[in-house]
Design brief:
- This protein is α+β, with helices and mostly antiparallel strands and 344 residues long.
- The chain is 25% helix and 35% strand.
- The protein is built from 8 helices and 17 strands.
- Strands 5, 6, 7, 8, 9, 10, 11, 12 and 13 form a 9-stranded mixed β-sheet that branches. The chain has an 8-stranded mixed β-sheet with strand order 2-3-4-1-14-17-16-15, sandwiched between helices.
- A hairpin with a 5-residue loop joins strand 16 and strand 17.
């Protein structure tokens, strides 16, 4: 071997080592990053004024802010060309709900034959201090049922025994849930808030239908950094009438973020297995569009190696800060549910 080749080979090896360490550092940083909390849960509405009447008169959400947005940045984030939107943020307790009306272009309504086991199903669970009083108030306001009636989950569902729950619909057919925890179940904060005298206390979680819990965990646990808080297999007459799906048997997984706030819940239907997939041609202006918005320290690292599907054209930088963040990306989870990653 030529003596001059030794330092050349050493130099090549040195550059290779530096490159390898850089790649490993990037990979390590992306795996080390995680979201901090669910900043808000939101969905598209057909008529903001009617939606506000529902959420602030029938339900006691308080209006926090309103903004009208259009332009290149929002088009890139929403994936909707020509978008002009009216966005209203509402608060119940410490949690935030975000409503978006597309003034242009308007999207499609929720399919009238939607069921709770269809993959586009998502809801928020609102905690109440008294199920009977909350249900009576909804009935007095002629709110449409999704469940047959309020249900008390039985003792054979150990993790959920004694929980009272009821599904109902807003004016656009978005499904909402009211939920009351018995003593010993749920976060202590809900039991503390029961003493406040308020009937509607806040949002505990958002639930999404998933096709494969393990595949969803790879996204929410491994990529976003959520942690499993508990699991349950729910079945029986009460669960069937809560979901209004005959023969319903669900594998339920609850996940939590680093900071307190809205949790995420997977609903995997073991039976019946005939739930329809999320429509592939879905757009952000379709009324069935929900988005779970996570606050994160670094969006780019969370997107490293992401291949499932962007709604936005990558991460989008916002200069004016009208929406409360300077950078955001809108992506889909393995089942098609929209996830918004935001960075202040």
């Amino acid at each position: 071997m030529n003596s001059e080749s030794k330092p050349l080979n050493s130099l090549k090896f040195g550059w290779f080592l530096v490159a390898l360490l850089s790649i490993l550092a990037l990979f390590g940083s992306s795996r080390g990053q995680s979201v901090s909390n669910v900043e808000s849960v939101g969905f598209t509405v057909s008529d903001m004024d009617k939606a506000l009447d529902f959420y602030t008169r029938i339900l006691p959400f308080e209006k926090v802010s309103e903004v009208e947005v259009w332009g290149h940045e929002f088009e890139r984030l929403s994936g909707v060309f020509g978008a002009r939107v009216r966005i209203v943020r509402l608060r119940l307790g410490s949690e935030t709900l975000e409503l978006t009306e597309y003034l242009t272009p308007q999207g499609r309504p929720i399919p009238v034959d939607s069921r709770s086991n269809d993959r586009w199903f998502q809801h928020i669970a609102i905690i109440v201090s008294d199920m009977d009083k909350a249900y009576a108030l909804l009935r007095a306001n002629k709110v449409r049922h999704a469940s047959t009636a309020p249900q008390t989950l039985p003792a054979h569902i150990t993790a959920a025994a004694g929980i009272k729950a009821f599904y109902f619909r807003d004016i656009d057919d978005h499904v909402l849930e009211i939920l009351q925890f018995p003593q010993g179940k749920g976060l202590q904060k809900w039991h503390d808030l029961e003493k406040s005298g308020r009937l509607f206390l806040g949002i505990d979680h958002t639930a999404i239908v998933v096709g494969d819990t393990d595949a969803s965990l790879k996204f929410y646990e491994e990529r976003l950094g959520l942690a499993v808080a508990g699991t349950s297999v729910n079945y029986g007459n009460e669960q069937e009438h809560l979901n209004n799906v005959f023969g319903a048997k669900l594998h339920i997984t609850g996940l939590k973020t680093k900071l307190d706030g809205i949790a995420v819940e997977f609903l995997e239907y073991i039976a019946p297995a005939d739930g329809r997939p999320y429509p592939k041609d879905s757009k952000s202006n379709d009324i069935w569009h929900w988005q779970t918005s996570f606050a994160a320290g670094g969006i780019e690292s969370l997107l490293t190696g992401y291949r499932t599907g962007f709604i936005s054209s990558g991460s989008v930088l916002f200069g004016k800060g009208q929406l409360g963040f300077r950078k955001a990306a809108l992506i889909r989870d393995p089942d098609g549910h929209a996830v918004r990653l935001t960075e202040r």
